[in-house]
Design a protein that fits this description.
This protein is α+β, with helices and mostly antiparallel strands. It is built from seven helices and 14 strands. A hairpin with a 2-residue loop joins strand 5 and strand 6. Helix 1 packs antiparallel against helix 2 and helix 5 runs parallel beside helix 6. The radius of gyration is 18 Å and the shape is globular. It starts with 8 loop residues before the first helix and ends with a helix.
Amino acid sequence: MARPVAPTCSELRQLLPAAVAATVQAAALIGRARGRVAATDIERKGVGDFVTAVDLRAQRLLRRLLRGALPTAGFLGEEGDSEHLDRDLVWVVDPIDGTSNFANGLPHHAVAVALLWRRLPVLAVLACEPEGVLYTAIRGDGARRAGRRIRIPAGRSDDGAIFGCQWHRGQQDLVFLAKLQTTGARIRTFGCTVVQLTDVAMGRLHANVQQQGRIWDIAAAGLVVEEAGGRFTDWAGKPVFPFGELECGHLGTIAAPRTVHRRIVKMLA
């Protein structure tokens, strides 16, 4: 259903509790299953790409609750069942970002929910583990962790910095890692894009550079970075939002405080 103007901050604040409730319920479902995923609960979707029965249950729950909160919106989920992607408002969800971590008992994974208006993220809710905390953001109204406003620290790009990175599975051309390490920075990969991006927003990572990431990985967490005052762009420094299209492949991104971001764009040019 077409909407002539973007939802206001006031309208998004009214919608936020429903998005939070849906995310919390999905996170609780996932938490109850943690450590109890059997081999028969895991299916291969592609090379190095897996889904568990818990992902599917969590997405069905999110779809039902979010549709109930905003019946006119479309829906895009990592695990399929997408509908009405041509509508101005579309929910985008990743029921478990970091499925391989979750399935193997590793602690870094997250639930990600975003609302897009004309492919621009305007609302975000993230339930991140192992923190066990909620991040939220509304475009133009800031980002919050556990209800408290957050601002990205200034950051650093010297030998005291830690950069998060992720790359395509099986990728052998990792020149970009060598470029980043010329600063002396340490490299970390936690296997969960959402967690790494919230770590940037909080200053625990001084940047995050990825070769890969799908819309459901980055829509909500990228908005949190931006609303915390950071930069979230492609490797050329161009904005990722609004998305060019919703059904696309992987996107390379940089998330960082502004001064660190400028230096990384130069290094990767």
